[in-house]
Amino acid sequence: MKLNKLVRNLTFWVLLAIVAGALLGHFKPAAAVQMEPLGKRFIDVVKLFINPIIFLTITLGISTMGDLKKVGRIGGKALLYFEIVTTLALFIGVGVAALVRPGAGVSTGKLNAEKVGEFTKRATEFSWGHFLADNLTLQVLLVAIALGIALSKYAGRKPIIHFLKACSKYVFRGLHLVMLLAPIGAFGGMAFTIGKYGIATLLPLGKLMVTVYLTMGVFIFLVLGAILRYCGIGMWTFLKYIKAELLIVLGTSSSEAGLPGLMEKLEGMGCAQPVVGLVVPTGYSFNLDGTTIYLSLSTLFLAQVFHVELSGAQILTMMGILMVTSKGAAGVAGSGFVVLASTLTAMKVIPVEGLALLLGVDRFMSEARSITNFIGNGVATIFLAHTEDALDHEMAVEALGKRLKPLRLRGRKDLTSGEYLGEVAEEAAP
Questions:
Q1: Tens digit of pLDDT for each residue in 192-205?
Q2: Which intervals of the chain form a coiled coil (predicted)?
Q3: Quick check: is 429 in a domain?
Q4: Which of 51, 66, 167, 379 could form a disulfide with 140 if both were Cys (CB 3.0 to 4.6 A apart)?
Q5: CA nearest neighbour of 178 among 356, 53, 348
Q6: Counting beta carbons within 10 angstroms of the beta carbon of residue 330, is it exposed (0 to 12), middle (13 to 18) or buried (19 or more)?
Q7: How many domains does the chain have?
């Protein structure tokens, strides 16, 4: 019976695929590199579902919410939350880099600066105007908000809402079928990464790799864990709940591959649909905790490699630049390198050619960035749903499979009427 349950478990197959991909990449690198299309095509197919899901979730959520002031309040609180948490991530990255000094003693003798040119060119071409114009997800978000507001004021909206609900049901049904292919995508992504770059590429920059992973682990369990504890939920409990999506993100190195599943899981644990629809897609552009940590660590790493002792004013300048440039990272191809190149170019102190040192290991660190970004957006949604009295405690208990710590809410609020539907349990599990 247990074996049958294991065979039917998607998480098991994704994990098995990641291990198989890593082994193929190590022992047969040439064959493994040919597996790249498997990972890319899977991500491309999943991306087809992202904008329809965002559109339907937000439109339905706002049109049935009733209180439009609440929409504005949730959006404003989300942006404030994103700024505070990403700034904290930035300070943590700078602090760890200054303490550990991962760039000390790294040789620059084998720099290959040729490939850096394309990233520095993109960095000079990047602008917020292009970011907003080219970011289809943000455009869909704005259209969905406008349509949701219009429908909420339209008296004959019922047939339209029924139609959109039917569309939503079929979109998610299609997504579930596609996710059955997740092991293939994870296998292709991991095989390509190990086959192309090899484990040996990690050794010269091993200290940086370890520093990045440990820093993001500390951020997840201490900072994001504290935020979740405020909501009465433990971090391990939440990670177990989204483990399948986390493995997909790990295998594909893309947080977008897990976005639709994350939105569905958050609704399934009681986060109100409007909150999920507003916070998650916005967070993918403006709440990039992992990317922020990586950028701050990498900038100081390169300064240490080239023996550039940054003054306090220069570090503050760097942090100010990163606070702005990191917000647009999700809308740029090769985002980590592009934003890093733009930061180094703006500072004019650290050689941009130093990016060549990171080319070989960036792919391995992208898993840490993607997973941290992914978890960060899930935590942000739970926190904002909690503070808006839009987290159904009973659904959370049922979904997470255990009693939760007492929530600091008067009860579960109906977002349409604004009335409380019942009291939240006051005692935690023994």
A1: 878 887 776 666 67
A2: none
A3: no
A4: 51
A5: 53
A6: buried
A7: 1
